[in-house]
From TrEMBL:
Chain positions covered by the region annotation Disordered: 34-59
Protein's name according to its UniProt entry: DUF3299 domain-containing protein
Keywords, sorted A to Z: Signal
Signal peptide: 1-21
């Protein structure tokens, strides 16, 4: 399992009390529980990742301010999932499908995938992270961003514009990607 996959699954393990090995087993296949853990091999539906994530009331960062010029997270997170070939796959609404391969603006909080002040590849999340080892929500609440020019890392919300991709069968389990992105005000 690669680093990005672990980053996306770790919050589920933390939240549900399951061992990471249990989460990475094929759906419905019993996995050996970690020492002292319950033997529940299936991720409970309430933990599979629905909605925009949890913005901690203790967070020093304000929630995102509504903007008319960006794709709302409420649209991106309004999806269902189904199990196909032992994988959880997204079922997108027509509104989400209409965004595919078009230039869009999105706002969110940066989760860098590499070191440095200037970022060209990062995740954009709907809520700020509260743990440096956990993503703040499920895959419906994050967008993988690849930029043309580096974007300066910020703890505060950023807005980027680029070509939006709705992913059907991403090997990392991501639902959305933006390419050729640039930072905007």
């Amino acid at each position: 399992m690669n680093f990005l996959s672990r980053c996306l699954l770790l919050p589920l393990a933390c939240f549900s009390g399951l061992a990471l090995a249990q989460l990475t087993s094929p759906i419905g296949t019993p996995a050996a529980p970690a020492a002292g853990a319950a033997a529940d091999p299936v991720v409970p539906p309430h933990v599979q990742g629905q909605g925009a994530g949890v913005h901690s009331p203790l967070s020093p960062f304000a929630p995102l301010k509504p903007r008319e010029d960006v794709v709302p997270w409420s649209l991106l997170t309004d999806i269902k999932t189904e199990v196909k070939n032992k994988r959880i796959t997204p079922v997108y609404t027509p509104g989400v499908q209409a965004l595919n391969q078009k230039m869009q603006k999105v706002q969110g909080f940066m989760l860098p995938l590499g070191p440095g002040e200037q970022q060209r590849h990062f995740l954009l999340a709907s809520v700020p992270p509260t743990c440096s080892f956990c993503t703040p929500g499920g895959p419906e609440s994050m967008i993988e961003i690849r930029t043309r020019e580096p974007v300066k890392y910020s703890l505060n919300a950023v807005v980027v514009e680029g070509k939006f991709h709705v992913l059907q069968n991403d090997p990392y389990g991501l639902y959305y990607r933006m390419t050729e992105a640039v930072g905007v005000k």
